[in-house]
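# nightly structure sweep
# worker-07 picked up a monomer target from the shared queue
# config: single-sequence mode, recycle default, output format = structure tokens
# input follows
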Amino acid sequence: MPRLFTALEIPPLVAGNLAALRGGIQGARWIDAENYHITLRFIGDVDDALGHDAAMTLAAIRRPSVSITLEELSSFGGDKPRAIVVKARADSALAELQAEQERLLRRIGIPPEPRKFVPHVTLARLRGASCSSVASYLGARGYFPPMRFEAARFVLFSSRDSVGGGPYLVEAAYPLRSRTAPAVAGIQELGAFGR
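# output follows
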């Protein structure tokens, strides 16, 4: 059974800048830069038939490209820190893209996503890291200069059953049209689910 999710890929230059933030927390498992992404919709473990249906359903999305601004180095987990992340600005275009995926996937029987959508890039997963070490890490990085890029597509990723962090395989890629170009229908790439 593949484990599927949709995401925006992080361009190599931005990923390289984010990778420079690695290190400095004991108990951190740092994600490889080539696996950085912004999850839009976690689908979960599905059989091949439902995976194919999800891949084909997502092809109905016709939206413009999305401007992404990564703007805050932070952590998730509160008193029990579980991840170091860079949060993205949740503007309306990004929220609408995510909400449309949620609606379409629910229509084909995929259960609703129970978590609130908080767009972010996970840099590290934490196990046993103290609040003080996370606070020290965040404090030592000081001001986080915003990083911007244009997302020209979203992808359907599959991952192996693991604790997360990749490697991820692009099963399908869906173009988002340029804000100045006409809409282009279809799927750019289709992996195993399209065969």
